[in-house]
Amino acid sequence: MNLEEALQNIRPADRKSMEEAKMRWRTVGKPLFSLGKLEDAVIRMAGIKGTASYTLGKKALVILCADNGVVEEGVTQTGQEVTAVVTENFTRKAASVTLMAEVAGVDVFPVDIGVARDVDHVTKPEYKVAYGTKNMTREPAMTREEAEQAILIGIRLVKDLAEKGYDIIATGEMGIGNTTTSSAVVSVLLDRDPEEVTGRGAGLTTDGLHRKVEAIRKAVQVNAPDPEDAVDVLAKVGGLDIAGLAGVFLGGAICHIPVVIDGFISSAAALCAARIAPEAAEYMMPSHRSGEPAGGMVLEALDLSPFIECGMSLGEGSGAVAVIPLLEMGLEVYNRMGTFDEIKIEQYEELK
């Protein structure tokens, strides 16, 4: 199946189920709307799943791992070799997010979609598109075919997890240099100057930040990505991890599974998915507002409001994993708390 065929299966979220969930909340024996965004989340997920009666049993974190040729431009504090090291750490529960995921009851699935070398216990030929991207300041980061292949891999990952009974998917990434590629993608799609959307990533100096901004500016100038064609933008100034994550978001819409946006890189992928198939945005769940300058801009462009404000900028899926227990708490109240009739209390009325 090609990308165009896959996208034909995306439909809007189910409005009837959302209305039923709203009505259920009105009967729950507590002050109306008192759980705020958690109530909204339950309603949104009802629309995604097509039913007002559901649970979040099995939870997954999909981490797309890839290297970026633009690292040659001195836009990072660490070397490219770190990508493979951290990717392997995901399998040994030796990374920050794996410890967080253990607490949250989330199963972790690292995927080598483009790491510069093969990684023990992670690399699978069917998921690996290339050994990193090209240096986008000199040429397109990848071909359009490679970008589409990465998107389709992301879709396939969601389908596989859906078949295994997973009810919600958190998104994560690992790739030295991917705040640079994400800033480039967002700069083009939101029509913003690179300086507005580019931050220090994992601790750049002021000189390093300047190099990063100029690298993005040069990449956009050299490759002239089409802002009306998100796949073209991904291919020319994006990364394989971002393209794969865009596929995960599209896969959520195809399979009717909520997909949780992590931080800036994940949100850049979500923006690409929404530009490729606008209805896919209805299947996305926010988590937090990234500490990167454009973190809030992208969520606003997606018309999403973050659940938590922790000043996090770790990536790996840490914010997405952190919000899942909150979503479960809201759903637990929705599913298990008695109604006003059951607890023999007069029902609250919405005051005008």
From TrEMBL:
Keywords from the named record: Cobalamin biosynthesis, Glycosyltransferase, Transferase
Upper taxonomic lineage: Bacteria, Bacillati, Bacillota, Clostridia, Lachnospirales
Pathway(s) served: Nucleoside biosynthesis; alpha-ribazole biosynthesis; alpha-ribazole from 5,6-dimethylbenzimidazole: step 1/2
InterPro entries: Nict_dMeBzImd_PRibTrfase, Nict_dMeBzImd_PRibTrfase_bact, Nict_dMeBzImd_PRibTrfase_N, Nict_dMeBzImd_PRibTrfase_sf
Active site location: E316 (proton acceptor)
Role noted for this protein: Catalyzes the synthesis of alpha-ribazole-5'-phosphate from nicotinate mononucleotide (NAMN) and 5,6-dimethylbenzimidazole (DMB).
Pfam families with a match to the protein in the record: DBI_PRT
Taxonomic source organism: Candidatus Mediterraneibacter stercorigallinarum
Protein name: Nicotinate-nucleotide--dimethylbenzimidazole phosphoribosyltransferase
Gene3D superfamilies referenced in this protein's UniProt entry, alphabetically: 1.10.1610.10, 3.40.50.10210
Name of the encoding gene: cobT
GO molecular function: nicotinate-nucleotide-dimethylbenzimidazole phosphoribosyltransferase activity
CDD domains, alphabetized: DMB-PRT_CobT
Enzyme Commission numbers on file: 2.4.2.21
Biological process according to GO: cobalamin biosynthetic process
Family indicated by similarity: Belongs to the CobT family.
Key word Glycosyltransferase present: yes
